[in-house]
Automatic annotation (TrEMBL):
Protein name: Flagellar biosynthesis protein FlhF
Organism: Burkholderia latens
Entry keyword set: Cell projection, Cilium, Flagellum
Domain of life: Bacteria
Length: 95
């Protein structure tokens, strides 16, 4: 893992230094303006990113509901079993 700091008079200058040292695929970790007005960029090479990033979390498994345990839509408040009927009536009383 090769995390490095680069300082330039402007952010453009600092980014140019990053690209020259770490390549076009470098990852910028942070940037800030220093007291003297120059810009500091902390970056690392894209190839080193795997060492810093945590491993991807396992995708949670979903279990399909059983046919006998399912609740009919009419029994759950807020669920409309006939959407066309709900759209036919106005949402707000005009009077």
């Amino acid at each position: 893992m090769n995390i490095r700091k680069f300082t330039g008079a402007t952010s453009r200058d600092a980014l140019r230094l990053v690209r020259e040292a770490l390549g076009a695929d470098a990852v910028v970790l942070s940037n800030r303006t220093l007291d003297d007005g120059s810009v500091e960029i902390v970056a690392l090479a894209d190839s080193d990113l795997a060492a810093v990033a945590p491993p991807a979390a396992a995708r949670p498994r979903t279990i399909a509901p059983r046919g006998t345990d399912s609740v009919p839509a009419a029994a759950v408040p807020g669920i409309v079993s006939r959407p066309s009927a709900a759209l036919a009536r106005p949402a707000v009383n005009p009077y």
